[in-house]
Amino acid sequence: MNKKSRLHIPHPAARPGEEPDFSYLDLSPAGSVDKPSIDARTRDIEHLSSGLVRVLDDDHEAKGPWDPNLDPGKLQIALRWMLLNRVFDKRMWQIQRQGRISFYMEAAGEEAVSIAQGMALRPGDMCFPSYRNQGLYMYRGVKLVDMMCQCLSNTGDMCKGRQLPIMYHSAKANVFSISGNLGTQYPHAVGWAMASAIKGEDHIAASWLGDGATAEADFHHALTFAAVYQAPVILNVVNNQWAISTFQGFAGGERRPFAARGIGLGIPGIRVDGNDLLAVYSVTLWAADRARRGGGPTLIELVTYRGGAHSTSDDPTKYRPKDEWSAFPLGDPIERLKQHLVATGHWSDEKHDKLEEELKAEVLAAWKEAQQFGTMTEGPFLDPSTMFDDVYAEVPKHLESQRRRMIEVEST
Amino acid sequence: MAQMNMIEAIRSALDVVMDRDPNVIVLGEDVGYFGGVFRCTDGLQRKYGEHRVIDAPIAEGGIVGAAIGMGVNGLRPVAEIQFADYIYPGFDQIVSELARLRYRSCGEFFSPVTIRTPCGGGIRGGQTHSQSPEAIFAHVSGIRTVMPSNPYDAKGLLISSVESDDPVVFFEPKRIYNGPFDGDPEKPAVSWASHPKGEVPEGHYTVPLGTADVVQTGEELTIITYGTLVHVAQAAAAEIGVDAEVVDVRSISPLDTKTLADSVNKTGRCLIAHEATRFSGFGAEIAARIQKECFWNLEAPIGRIAGWDTPYPHAFEWQYFPGKKRLIAGIRSMMELA
User: Fold this and answer.
1) Which residues of A are catalytically annotated?
2) Catalytic residue among B51, B129, B139, B195
3) H or E segment at B235?
4) Residues B127 and B248 reside in one and the same domain
5) What is the ipTM of this complex?
6) Model's pTM, two decimal places?
7) Is residue B208 in a domain?
């Protein structure tokens, strides 16, 4: 101990030019964490917030009590969705680099989060995603062409040109509208879940935010409300190690795992290998069952790694080692599920390559179709006078008059 | 018809909408078992149960955020923020989420939350229990901002607010909860029983959002005001015998410009009065609209009477409050200009 107080300024383990170092990550061997019954008391399962639930081991075998025993057909489907997410992101990134959309965010390395959790939830459950959960929209049936049109702000754009690319929404798929303000969706999920319980329905809500956004007040509001009313909600912290340039230590991750944030409120926390589709699926199903049967909220920390830049406006080589992702001890979620399927005789490199080519073709076809609805430079273009719609349920007089004025000015 | 003060009228409005629509729920600090620090929800939990009148943790951001999620899931939440001064922790949820949800999702999602919050001074509340932040909310597209000045309007506007699919921030001037106030704190309190707007139907009725009300007709000048100052303005004009038309804005946003402009076009003089600070206050917006709509009929520059541009001081409350003296001075200076 020093004799004087001094500030602790968190530093990441490695900066550009240094060797990646993940020795700070506590890793439990696959299969080593017990699986309690869904009615376990929070105080009896506190250890789940500091352990790491893993099913797939380093030899790609599924192990232990959290193995969901999904049939290989279902795992192949999961692999397909994760790969689609990756292929879609790569294409859209490229499209942004060509200047054909203004902005993009990829989920590289985190695909298991959206896909495994999407699989574990029921269609009637409501999702309140963050901006890296595009996989949830895909998995729940939003068409690629519709997502691309959104990114293009063209005539097919579900947001009618009002939102930055990737800020999707789908009432039909029960996936909420994405906000650019971080963490705001967390209390919405809790309120939605409270309403579900008030109405006596068995739908639950789930929400996602990143390690960085746990510092926002909304995170704490949501946890408090979820705990007080035992709302049927799953609160997910996607710990991808980086919030733009600040590593997870700046959100308080150096002292205790994010999964432990709810313990003081009596919310069980589970820390899970976020790149292990089987473990994520299993943990989510556990939390969903618990919530559905009146057991209240669960906080899940998904330990993963942000494989790409924060967004197309970011350059991570300025603040972290270039090869950090390849050194991440929990690997790549797609590669791990692929290897598991290969090891169990249900997949092959050839099949994988073929699938990837198919998905690339699917994405390319969607891109061609999306451009029919207009691009940033070529029509058809959205009618700007629609900007006055949906501010209120009905357009008030002053907005009608501003609309007329805009049309008048634009036509001169 | 029944005699009600504003608290009773607000309670009656909530009772009526809760009785008609099982999706209406109330949440907020102390609103449940206790019935609210101002008693506006007294008895509602006993009548409608703990699942519909919900005591909330002390987290305004959480109250608004959870209410938004409830609204998305088909409920019609009425959230109480105990004092308008406490609304700021919920500000991001109101401005970035509640106000823009319909817009950003092109109508696929919306949340019909009504936020009730007592505002204004004159109750020895100091700078953390006296603010009138209506202009801050009026500036935000996508929410409606309302401030009634009497029990009849309070009930009718609150029912309209809850039934509206738009989010509403509903300001309740707490100085006039129990009776109209003419701006003289030395006088004994007056009850709503002697005021025509204290007559309130017991059942369902609405006062439409987006409409101003001419509470007193006159020919010499128009005083455009809202909240507590409606009563102060009437008293001030009466005291100096000026034949003033007093227009109660009551729906701050969207604003009923026509009713305001029609009055000023008739009288040729416009004095705007509100309790909130003057700089960038809502009076500035009214003044801009009036000079545009009434320019050729104006016989004097538009005047503004408002709270000083300081925080609301505890010990100097009556020097801060834009009371009768300041209104009379404002009216006089305007009338002196031929």
Assistant:
1) 306, 310, 319
2) B129
3) helix B229-239
4) no
5) 0.97
6) 0.98
7) no
